[in-house]
Structures are given as structure tokens and as C-alpha cells.
Amino acid sequence: MLGRDAYRAWTTITLRWADADRYGHVNNTVYYQWFDDAVNVWLIAAGLLDLRGDGPIGLVVETGCRFAKPIDFPGAVEIGLAVEHAGTSSARYRLGVFLPDESDGVAEGHFVHVYVDRTTRRPQPLSPAWRARLETISLGER
Amino acid sequence: MLGRDAYRAWTTITLRWADADRYGHVNNTVYYQWFDDAVNVWLIAAGLLDLRGDGPIGLVVETGCRFAKPIDFPGAVEIGLAVEHAGTSSARYRLGVFLPDESDGVAEGHFVHVYVDRTTRRPQPLSPAWRARLETISLGER
Amino acid sequence: MLGRDAYRAWTTITLRWADADRYGHVNNTVYYQWFDDAVNVWLIAAGLLDLRGDGPIGLVVETGCRFAKPIDFPGAVEIGLAVEHAGTSSARYRLGVFLPDESDGVAEGHFVHVYVDRTTRRPQPLSPAWRARLETISLGER
Amino acid sequence: MLGRDAYRAWTTITLRWADADRYGHVNNTVYYQWFDDAVNVWLIAAGLLDLRGDGPIGLVVETGCRFAKPIDFPGAVEIGLAVEHAGTSSARYRLGVFLPDESDGVAEGHFVHVYVDRTTRRPQPLSPAWRARLETISLGER
Predict the structure, then answer these.
(1) How many domains does chain D have?
(2) Where does chain C have alpha helices with state H?
């Protein structure tokens, strides 16, 4: 799994009681909530996504995750984000889940967004400005 | 609704993409997740609940919430907590949901825990130590 | 708690792995998801709510629930629904959670919707047709 | 994506209001809840998993999903399940999400469980009985 150096943007998320399932660790589905959070928080901060505006929105077409080590409430996770690939109207992100003060990640995943017109929901080519902004968080050398 | 002064303990929780429903605001059910978080984070910090130990655990027997104003991802909420009443083996908490830097709450609720033996799940009277600890966060004068 | 006779409309919901928390029973917050389901399924079936149309929508301003008995995945729950009170632009529903083939409920709650214009989000008086439809599921004699 | 013929076991799950996000369709993370449901419902029905017993439990080490078509509340989904591969102490499942009465799936994913001792959480080799049971739902010819 990639180390912290590979990632270019970070989001901290507080764990919730509801995240843990009957086995006493955070359920696998919750990591995907964090991927949604990390990607969208970054898109909003980067000025690319305006939830109340009329620009393009990202629809998720593929995700995946490998889970290396169980974690548990309470506490927080730090989600590292980087762009692996920008396509014509899509972006493939890599995400790493880390506990604060730990260098090894606890999970790693990918997340593919297709950017579509908000109303028609048809794919919309990424503008040069979008593309340039995505490049600022390109995945580090591995 | 009670102001910030009424509360005695605080927890900050980051909002998630998944918290908002189709109407573009945080869904009512999510506030109850935050109540679970605030109560349990405080119980753990107070040394009353040990998730991996064998002391009593709290089971929820009643909750309720009034919603004053919609809120939305991204951002965070601050949850104020206070004890309204400590019974023989139960505690009734009051909770207020606030946006950072706002003095008026966006929602207010209550949450009743019955403390039970972890294995038998039978109610267990609160020890004097528990009771004293709960009193340190008694709801402020109204 | 009210028996099955008090309720006028029913929705069956399948339990999910994610519903159970670390204590091995369905978490209290999940019951509120079912209340959302039962009310909205009924509103849609009654022709009062069209998720993709432009009529009024219901915003939740208050909920509450008492939990009588823990339940667990897998299986299903049956949610009974009845209208306790219809106001100028609001409705207060009573909801009962039952296991299939059991006559005593496992939880009982209330749920208050204010009906608002979808765009302005301002309260909108209930039309006579809405009111008449709500009356068809008035809470039974107690 | 695989058709219905590829799958060997089926679970029907009711959609919830909470499943849809601000874009008015079921959020990507919810499909993973259904994978948890389908796998565990089958394991329990097959007699391999006893939630309250002391046999091995499955921990999720990898999942992934491709999303072909948005779906929305209300309604239900049918989850098709098959075993792609059984390892020494693991199983890789393939899952398809279908709308009732539709032959093409709306999403397809995989889910890898490692079976561990419930207490030590160390991997435990699959018994011949487990292996034989898993083979009864081997993925169909493609």
C-alpha cells in the first residue's frame, strides 16, 4: 500500500458510534463514505464543485478498497487523496486511510467519478481549468 | 431551545456526504448518530465506559429530537451534552446541535440510557462513582 | 404501547447487516430510517408525494421513539403507520415497529412533517384532498 | 456485466429513504451494505455462520463495485451471489444488483472474506464442510 507521501490532499473525519458493526470495528462500507467525503470536500475547496450551483457534478461509476487493519470508534481518520488519471470526462482518484500519527495506512482504495451535466446527467468533457486543477494533486511517484 | 450555556460537555463531529438526503440537507436520522457519538465519547473520556472491558454498557430506551433549521455538508457540528436526570440505573441526557460560531442551536434532543450488565443485559444500579461523575455535567439552570 | 390494531398502513422492511451495532442489536438510529421509509412510501402510494414532481415535500421537524425490546439482523420488520393529527400545514404520525408474527411491538414513535413548497421551502397549507387522504389513516381508538 | 444466470443465491432487499443522496439516487456506499447483507444472509442460511455461536466469522479484506445505472427509492433490489474462488481460509464472492423484472444488472461487485477465529481474529482454514457448501454456489460458466 502507498505511504502518506503519495497523497496530495488530506481530510480529517471523526469516527462515529454507528461506524462500528457487531464485530467491534468500523464496517467496510463506511470507508466508502469517507471516500465520498474526501473527494467532494476537495472538489468544493478547489472551486470545481458548487453543491448549490449549476456546474457539472460527479457520479460514481466504480470504487474499490483493500482493508489492511481493523480500526474502531472513537477517534478520527485522515484520508489522503490523489488523482491517478484524468480522462475525457472522468477522474480516477486513489485514497488512503490513515490513523493520526501512524505512517502505514489501514486501507487503500480507488474511486472513479464521471462528470456530468447536472440536469441531463450526460457526461461533460473536463474543461482545461478542471484538468489543470486535477493535475495539482496528481499521485506521487511510486 | 436551550443555548450553549446549558451544556457541560462538547463533541465536534465532521459532516459527511452521506448525511444529506435527496432534499439537500442533513437527514433527521443522522442527528441521532451524533447523540450516540456525544454520549459515548463522553462516557469513555469520563472513564465510565470501556468498550473492550467488562463494566456496564448503556442501552438506548428512548430518544427524541426537534429540528429547528436545516444544515448541510460540508462542515462540522458541535454537540453539547448535559445530564437532565440520573435514575437508579438510567440517565437522561439533553443534547444540543450547534454550528460552529453560531449561538442558536439547529436541533435539540434527549437520549435515555439504561445501564446494564454487559453479559446478562439486566439493569444494574449506578454506582456512587458513576452518579458523581454524571453530576459533573448536570444541565445548567434554565 | 399501541397494538397492531391502532395502525392503518403497513410497510415491510428488510434488516441489514449494517443495522446492528457493536452490541449485536439494531442501533436506535435505524428505527428512524424506517419511519422515513414508512411515511414516504405511504405518501407516494397515496399520490401525495411525487419525488420527481413539483408538489409539496415534507420536512421533518420532530421525531421521537421508545425502544421496548432489542432486535437483530437478519429478518424483517413491519412498520405500522397512522396519522395522529393533521395541522394547517403539518401532520403528526404515530409509528409502531413489529416483528412478523408478533403482536407486541418492539418500538413506538412519532414523526412530524411540515409540508413545504419544494423550491421556497416555506410551509404550505394542506389542500382538502391531502387532508382527506390523511384522514383515511387516522389513528385507531385507543 | 454478468447476467442473472451467473448467480446461485438471491436476496431481496427493500430500499430506504436514507439510501438516496442529494443527487436523488442510491448512494454508491449503500451497494456495499447490500453485499454484506447478501453474503451474510447466505452464510447464515447455509449453516456456516452463527451470529451468536462460536464458529469462525468472516472479515472483509477487499471489495469493489462498478455502477452501471442509477436507481432510486422506493422499491427493492435483488442481489445475486456466487463464489468465484475459495482459498485456504478465504472466499471471493461475485455479486450482481438487479431491479425486479429486469434482466440486466445495475451494478456488479466482488467481496473477499477471510474467515477467522472469533476470539483471536486469526485466519482459520476452511473445513471440508465449509468448502463443499461454498462450492454449491460456484459462479456459473461465463
Answers:
(1) 1
(2) 28-45, 128-135
